[in-house]
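Key result, reporting period 2: structure in, sequence out.
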C-alpha cells in the first residue's frame, strides 16, 4: 500500500455518501479530475498540493491524507464532514428543489431508504466493490515519507535539479523515530534525500539516505544542514562565526573548514538522521 493508495483510501472514506460533484466544487477541482483519482482504471493520483488543499478546506490536520488509518474511529474529522451531508440530507435537498410532484408516500420511502446505513463502496473494474474500512491499519503507526531525487553533495557541491523527482517512498514509524532521539513536530515535515561524496564520512557515507526537516529554513544552532551556496547544493555542518559568517565544516578530517557569508547561504532543511544509524 503506497502513499497514493493510502490517500485514495482516505479520500473514499472522506467522501462517504456525499455527491462527488459537490465535493469537487467545494475543493476547487474539476469533477472529472476527482473521478479520475477515484477510478481504478486510471493512474491519476491525489498529489501533495490537492491533498493539502482538501485538508485545509475540511478542517483536517495537515498530513491527514498520508496517514494509514487504524480504524474508522481514528478519523473523527472525516466522520464529522460526512455527517454534514448524509444521504438523508441530500435526498431532502433533492426533494426540496425538484420533488414537488412526488406523492407523499413516495417521498417517505425515499427518505427511509436514504437513512438506512449502506456499506462503503469504492470504484472497481466492473461496477462497485464493497470495502471494509473497519479493519485495523496494516502497520501500526507507520507513515510514508517521500524520498526525493535530490543529490546534496558532501564535497564540492552539486547543481540542484529544477524539478526533483520522487524515488521510492520510505515507510517509518514516527513513534520509533522519536524513541531514537529524532526531534520533529509533524511527520509530514520530513523528507528523504541522498548525500553524495565522502567529505562528511564517517558520519554520512556516500549515497546514504538522509532524513531532513524541510520546515527548518534558518540557522537553529550547530548542526548538519542542507543548504545552497553559490548556486551549489551542500550537506555540511554549519557553525555561526560572528554575525555575518558561517563556518562550513566537513566531518572528514582531510577536508579543511571554510568560511562562507550568511547572506550568500540559503538553508533548505536540517538533517535529523542518517539512514545508516549514525547520530548527527
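The corresponding designed sequence is given below.
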Amino acid at each position: 500500500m503506497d502513499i497514493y493508495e493510502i490517500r485514495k483510501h482516505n479520500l473514499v472514506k472522506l467522501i462517504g455518501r456525499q455527491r462527488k460533484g459537490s465535493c469537487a466544487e467545494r475543493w476547487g477541482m474539476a469533477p472529472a479530475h476527482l473521478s479520475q483519482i477515484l477510478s481504478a482504471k486510471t493512474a491519476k493520483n491525489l498529489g501533495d498540493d490537492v491533498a493539502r488543499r482538501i485538508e485545509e478546506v475540511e478542517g483536517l490536520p495537515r498530513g491527514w491524507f498520508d496517514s494509514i488509518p487504524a480504524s474508522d474511529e481514528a478519523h473523527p474529522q472525516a466522520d464529522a464532514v460526512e455527517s454534514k451531508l448524509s444521504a438523508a440530507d441530500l435526498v431532502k435537498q433533492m426533494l426540496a428543489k425538484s420533488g414537488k410532484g412526488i406523492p407523499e408516500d413516495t417521498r417517505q420511502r425515499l427518505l427511509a431508504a436514504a437513512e438506512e446505513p449502506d456499506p462503503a463502496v469504492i470504484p472497481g473494474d466492473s461496477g462497485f466493490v464493497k470495502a471494509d474500512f473497519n479493519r485495523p491499519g496494516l502497520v501500526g503507526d507507520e507513515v510514508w515519507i517521500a524520498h526525493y531525487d535530490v543529490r546534496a553533495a558532501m564535497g564540492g557541491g552539486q547543481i540542484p535539479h529544477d524539478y526533483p523527482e520522487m524515488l521510492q517512498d520510505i515507510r517509518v514509524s514516527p513513534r520509533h523515530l522519536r524513541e531514537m532521539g529524532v526531534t520533529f513536530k509533524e511527520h509530514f515535515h520530513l523528507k528523504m534525500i541522498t548525500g553524495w561524496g565522502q567529505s562528511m564520512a564517517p558520519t554520512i557515507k556516500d549515497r546514504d539516505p538522509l532524513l531532513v526537516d524541510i520546515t527548518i529554513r534558518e540557522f537553529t544552532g550547530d548542526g548538519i544542514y542542507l543548504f545552497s551556496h553559490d548556486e551549489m547544493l551542500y550537506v555540511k555542518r554549519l557553525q555561526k562565526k560572528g554575525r555575518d559568517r558561517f563556518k562550513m565544516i566537513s566531518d572528514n578530517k582531510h577536508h579543511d573548514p571554510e568560511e562562507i557569508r550568511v547572506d550568500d547561504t540559503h538553508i533548505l532543511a536540517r538533517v535529523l538522521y542518517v539512514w545508516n544509524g549514525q547520530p548527527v
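Residues 3-130 form one domain. The two ends are 31 Å apart (CA to CA). This case is discussed further under Risks and Mitigation.
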